[in-house]
Amino acid sequence: MAKKATEKKSLLEWHRQSGLSVQEFADALGVTIQTASNYLNGRNEPGVVRAVRMAEVLKIRVEDVDWSADPKALDLPLMPEGEGVTPERLAIARVWISKGKTKTEVAKVLGISRQKLYDYIS
Known about the structure:
Blueprint: H1 11-18, H2 22-29, H3 33-40, H4 48-58, H5 87-98, H6 103-110, H7 114-121
């Protein structure tokens, strides 16, 4: 029987809460670890049947998943207000990159080119 959830969470958050490894999740779905990772990180969207199976594996309801949530936004500190690159903003940019944001995304938030970002973080 599925648990009644009180709030919507991303698939990645539900997965983390489940305690399953990515390999265990993949095995339960009958997919490769890469495919499971792609679902968890928002790179692939599951069809209805696969979404239902994911919910069953995670012991939640399909409606409990915020399918539009950006998994890359989880656990990221907020970028300080302002323009350009400051030591504080650069420190946050490094955290974002370490947690999976692309350098292109980070450079855009900082308002600089990707090449300029490479100059700062190298």
